[in-house]
Prior knowledge:
Layout: E1 10-17, H1 23-40, E2 44-51, E3 57-64, H2 67-79, H3 84-90, E4 95-102, E5 105-109, E6 115-119
Amino acid sequence: xxxxxxxxxxxQLIEFEIEPRQQxxxxxxxxxxxxxxxxxxxxxxxxxxxxxxxxRRVLNYLQWQSREAGExxxxxxxxxxxxxxxxxxxxxxxxVTFGSFQVLHSLALSHDNALHCTLIG
Length: 121
């Protein structure tokens, strides 16, 4: 049995390809941008910003309670409300790749080191 689609959390992945000298500044800018998203949009669950060892890539991982919540936040990116496109230009991203995913299976360790597995659909 599959869980209804609206009960699944939603993940957005945004990968930036940049020059290594831009990586630290981009991570800092994305951190501030992501904090604004967390405070300003309902349905925000979590975010991670990851930097590659070679300095050429940054991955922004955003998780939302629903597809609708994630898409509403992304629409604000496109309208310029959060200055996302300016952030891309300012850090001279060579490429930016967007991906959207429904969460179907989740693993996590609890505070007592027990492994919790959730099969969503």
